[in-house]
From TrEMBL, chain A:
Residues 71-210 form the AAA+ ATPase domain. SMART domains: AAA (SM00382). PANTHER family: AAA-TYPE ATPASE FAMILY PROTEIN / ANKYRIN REPEAT FAMILY PROTEIN, AAA-TYPE ATPASE FAMILY PROTEIN _ ANKYRIN REPEAT FAMILY PROTEIN. Belongs to the CbxX/CfxQ family. Keywords: ATP-binding, Nucleotide-binding. This is Probable Rubsico expression protein CbbX. GO terms for molecular function: ATP binding; ATP hydrolysis activity. Gene3D superfamilies: 1.10.8.60, P-loop containing nucleotide triphosphate hydrolases. The keyword ATP-binding applies.
Automatic annotation (TrEMBL), chain B:
Keywords: Calvin cycle, Carbon dioxide fixation. Residues 4-104 form the Ribulose bisphosphate carboxylase small subunit domain. Belongs to the RuBisCO small chain family. The gene is cbbS. It comes from Methylocapsa palsarum. HAMAP family: RuBisCO_S_bact. Heterohexadecamer of 8 large and 8 small subunits. RuBisCO catalyzes two reactions: the carboxylation of D-ribulose 1,5-bisphosphate, the primary event in carbon dioxide fixation, as well as the oxidative fragmentation of the pentose substrate. Both reactions occur simultaneously and in competition at the same active site. Although the small subunit is not catalytic it is essential for maximal activity. InterPro entries: RuBisCO_ssu, RuBisCO_ssu_dom, RuBisCO_ssu_sf. This is Ribulose bisphosphate carboxylase small subunit.
Amino acid sequence: MDAGQTLSETDAPETIDLRRELTETHAQEVLDKLDRELVGLVPVKLRIRQIAALLAVDRVRRRLGLASEAPTLHMSFTGNPGTGKTSVASRMAEILHKLGYIRKGHLVSVTRDDLVGQYIGHTAPKTKEILKKAMGGVLFIDEAYYLYRQENERDYGQEAIEILLQAMENQRDDLVVILAGYADRMDQFFRSNPGFRSRIAHHIDFPDYGDGELMEIARSMLAAQNYHFSAAGAAAFESYIEARRRQPLFSNARSIRNALDRARLRHANRQFERTDPVSVDDLMTIDAPDILASGVFDADRSAGSDRSGGKEV
Amino acid sequence: MRITQGCFSFLPDLTDAQIRAQVQYCLDKGWAVSLEYTDDPHPRNTFWEMWGPPMFDVADAAGVMLELNACRKAHADRCYIKVSGFDSSHGWESVRISFIVNRPGEEPGFRLQRQEGPGRSLRYTTQSYAVDRPSGERY
C-alpha cells in the first residue's frame, strides 16, 4: 500500500497488465487448479472468475489511489447434496487469500451445533468463539437454514443470526461468511431473514452433475486412490450411475464416492476368493462384477414402478 | 507514576495497530494469546484476572482485538489490561511475551513502608496507593 501511494504520486503507469496481476498474486494458479480438479460446475467457475477479476481490478485501483469501498464478499452457495459446495468454499478461501482480501485464508466449517447453544446465555459466547476463530479467514456455515427455526420463536438460533449479521456488517475486512445449503430451503431461509439476503453479495447456484461428469468424477476419485476401471468396469459403472440417479436420496458426487467405496469392498473380497496368485494390476482394477453386484441394479430392475429399494445413499 | 511491567513498558503506549501487529506476531509463532486485567498492579501480583480463557485456536489478530475491545469496554478506565503469549512447546511451556495494553487514567504509584523488626532491623515493602480503597473503586 505504501509503495502504491508513492507510485500514484510520482509516475503512475498508463497501462496495467491485469493478467500479470492475477499471475503475480498466484490467484491464477488457484483458478486453474479449480478448473482442472473440479469437474463440471461451469456456472460456478464462471462466477468465481468474475469475482476474482473484480478483486484483481479493485486491487490495482486501490494501489493507484482510486478509492473504492472494499467489496462485500459474503456469499451463499446453493445446490443439491454432493455438488461440491464445500470443496469450492475451501478454494474460495485460497483465492481470497491470494488476492489479499482475507489475511489468513483458513476455512472454518461449522453447522448449527457449533453456533447455537443449549441454554439461555450459551449461544452468544459460542458464536463469538467461532467468529474469533474464523477472523482473517472464511466462515463456512453448512446447512445454514437450520439456524432459523420458524416453528419455535424462542429458538436460540435467532440470537446466533443476530450476532452473525452484526459481524458480517462490522467486520467485513476481517471475515468472509459463506452460507451453504439446498436451494429451496435456503430461499425460505432468506425470505424469513431479509437481513442475510441484503448482506450477501454473491448468490451462487451449484447445478447437478450430468452422467458424463459423474463418470469423470468417479475416474478421478479412483485415480487418487490408485485404482482404475477396466473397460467392462467403466461400462458397468456408467449404467450404475444411470440406475442410481433414478433412485431416491441421490446425492451426486457423494453417492459416487460411496458407490466406489462399496465397489472397493467387493473388489477386495473377489481377490480373496481367487485361488490363483493375484497380480499388481488385479489389485488396481475395478472390474464389472464389483459394480454389477450392487443392490442398486436389483432395486432398479424390480422397482420400475415402485421406488422403494433406495437403501444405498 | 507510570508503572513499567512487561515488554514495551518504557515506550509510549502502543497504538491499536501496534498491538495488533504484536499479537499477530505471537499468533504466527503459535503462542496462545490471553488477556488479563487487574486493579492491583503490584509487581509481585502475578495473579491478574483472566478475561476469558486463553485464545488457543485464533488465527488472526482481529479475534484478539475483538476481545480486547470488549475488555476495555468493561474495564478501560479502572484497570490495567495486559496481553500475554503462552508458548506451549516442549522446553518452553511458559509465557514468552506479556505487555500492558491499557492503563487507568491516573496512576497514583507506590509508597514505601518501613516496618521495625526486633533489634533495630527494618523491613521494607511497597504498597500501591490505589489499593487503599476497596477493589472496584481504586481508579
